[in-house]
């Protein structure tokens, strides 16, 4: 056997061992998850991940590989988190609520905590149309925008293990709600009118709230929409005076309690 073949044989043997150990590790990860669920312990403990990263470095015999080891373990920890969230939440998490309720920022945070994919329906619409929401409203009006929104949501019919942040008006259409509910749990991010005004007073990207000084429009829209958000959502979260991470963690807790 020449040297190349010998080295390849060693690699094949290592791979076999790695796969067996990887499987064993993933099984242990699921056992930890089951224990935490049963004892109502916090599912994600970032300190534990930091500890693991520190510990594995001390197992190395040759320090030249510490960078490679760190990138391997970052990936392993991500995979473990994703496996756990797939088990815990075998559905999409759909964020609904009024403009300015924080659906996009909370959605991104939630997706990163759970290693889930993330989709924002407004982003999908602008990517498909290749123009901004403002431009869509000025060329095709609200009705034109709603048509594109319906197409965007219909394209999410088969999406799985994803956090979906919806435009505030998306769930006013029953057909959209049906699609979103089919594979997902709807989480309503509640926000007070005062908070909406504060958060969006300098915003120029929401054509429906162009005139924020007209409180009547806001009150009328809220009055029409709140009962719908209330009726279709499985989880309700008050977001006033809360940080994004706090809201994301609260969603995880409430989903686990469903
Ligand atoms: C809308 C909300 C917006 C966007 C569009 C219309 C609405 O999304 O879809 O401007 O009708 O509430 P955000 O809720 O993400 O701001």
- Helix content range: 55-70%
Output the structural class: alpha/beta
Unique bound compounds: shikimate-3-phosphate
What is the rounded distance between the termini? 60 Å
Radius of gyration: 23 Å
* Largest β-sheet summary: 5 strands, parallel
Strand coverage percent: 5-15%
Query: With helices defined by DSSP (H or I, 4 residues minimum), what is the helix count?
Result: 10
Instruction: Write down the overall geometry.
Output: elongated
Structural account:
The chain has 258 residues and is of the alpha/beta class. The chain contains 10 helices and 5 strands, in the order αααβαβααβαβααβα. The protein has helices spanning 3-38, 46-59, 66-88, 103-114, 121-129, 133-154, 174-183, 193-200, 215-232, 244-257, and strands spanning 92-96, 117-120, 162-165, 184-190, 235-238. Strands 2-3-1-4-5 form a 5-stranded parallel β-sheet, sandwiched between helices. The longest helix has 36 residues, at 3-38. It is elongated. The mean pLDDT is 93. It binds shikimate-3-phosphate. Shikimate-3-phosphate (S3P) is lined by residues 99, 103, 122, 133, 167-169, 206-208.
